[in-house]
Amino acid sequence: MGKVIIINGSPRAPRSNSKEYGEIFSSYYKGQADTFNITKNNHKEICSKIEDYTDILLVFPLYADALPVTMLNFLKVLEENPPKNKPKVSVIINCGFIEPEQNNVCIDMVKLFCKQNTYEFNSVLSIGGGEAILGTPFKIFVKWKIKKLGKSIYNNTPENLRVTMPISKKMYLKASTNYWINYGKRNSITKSQMETMKIE
Asked: What domains can be seen in the chain, in order of their start residue?
C-alpha cells in the first residue's frame, strides 16, 4: 500500500491554499498520507522521515515563475541529506494566473532536481487561478483532478494534469481586480497604495 508524505512548501503554510489542496488530496487518497509544513528549522527532520514513504507530494504556489524560497531551501537540504530509499516525486502547484501553463517552467525545475538527484518524477497537477478557485463553484473541478492525481500516485500511473476556471481571461482579470481592491479595503489599504512598490 502506498504511503505519501505531503510536503507543504508555501511560505504561508498553516493558512495557505496549498494546505487546503493537501487536505483535499488526503481525503481522496486510498493509502496513508501524512502532511508536513516546511518551516525554517525542520528541514532535516522532514528529510529523515522521507525514506519511510513510497511517494513525496510537493505542494506549493508559484512565486515569480519559480519555486518559493521555502521550497528551494528545503530541496537544498534534501540534496545534502538524501534518504536511503528514494520515493517517487509528484507535485501540486498553483498560480494566480488563470493559465496553468504559467507553472511549466517551475515544474521543469522540480524535474531537473529529480534527474540530478536520481528521484523518479511521477505525476503533476498544475492549477491556474489557484488563489481564487477554492472560493468559487469551480472548486469541484479541482477536487476531481486531485482525486485523479491520488489514483495516479496510488496506482503508479504517471499523469500530467491541469485545471483552471472555465471563464475568459477578461472576466478573470475583472474579478481578480475587484477581489484585491476589497481585500485592500479590509486592511485599510487603497487601490493607489497597492499600485506602488511601498506595500509589503
From this structure: 3-166 (3.40.50.360), 168-200 (no CATH)
